Amino acid sequence: MSYLNLDKAKINDTASELNILLADYHLYYQKLRNFHWNIVGRNFFDLHEKFEEMYDDAKLKVDEIAERILTLRYQPISNYSDYLKQSNLSESPSRTKDEEMVKILLEDHGKILIQMRKVIEKAEAAGDEGTIDMIGAYIGDIEKISWMLDAWTMKPSDTHPTT
């Protein structure tokens, strides 16, 4: 890996974990499209718009993750059958209630965060600062949207604990 000054043997593990994250993001993206298309009820306007914002962001991340794998000189997986085999996420039914949609997304965020931390662990072992920086920013993004979705699930009388 001469142009990046990275050890090819060490970076292989990073690329493998990035491919799993790529699979996760593809399923996450499609799930957001599913929820965006199929949301009904009193929360339609809020969640329809939020899910669109979230899938636009996920679409960009799918491309960036694939391009990072290519930058490391590895092949990104690119078939849905492979995504389904490798992803930590599963598909969701189209007929899901609004509150269940948010609960599912929060659970998926937890799984994606675990995978992101695996990527960072491998990238640290390889001295791959580019991947560490990219995924570190993604962690901040998904933590923020998780906080927002969690706040959406709270009752107006709920409060956050004080320190």
Task: Please tell me about this protein's structure.
The protein has 163 residues and is mostly helical. It has a single domain, classed as Ferritin, core subunit, four-helix bundle (Ferritin, Up-down Bundle). 74% of the residues lie in helices and 0% in strands. The chain is built from 5 helices and no strands. Helix 4 (98-126) packs antiparallel against helix 5. It is globular and about 55 Å long. The termini are far apart.
Describe what is shown at a glance.
The chain has 163 residues and is mainly α. The protein has helices spanning 8-38, 44-71, 80-86, 98-126, 129-153. The protein has one domain (8-152): Ferritin (Up-down Bundle).
Radius of gyration: 17 Å
CATH topology: Ferritin
Beta-strand percent range: under 5%
Let me know the CATH homologous superfamily: Ferritin, core subunit, four-helix bundle
Q: What's the level 1 CATH class? A: Mainly Alpha
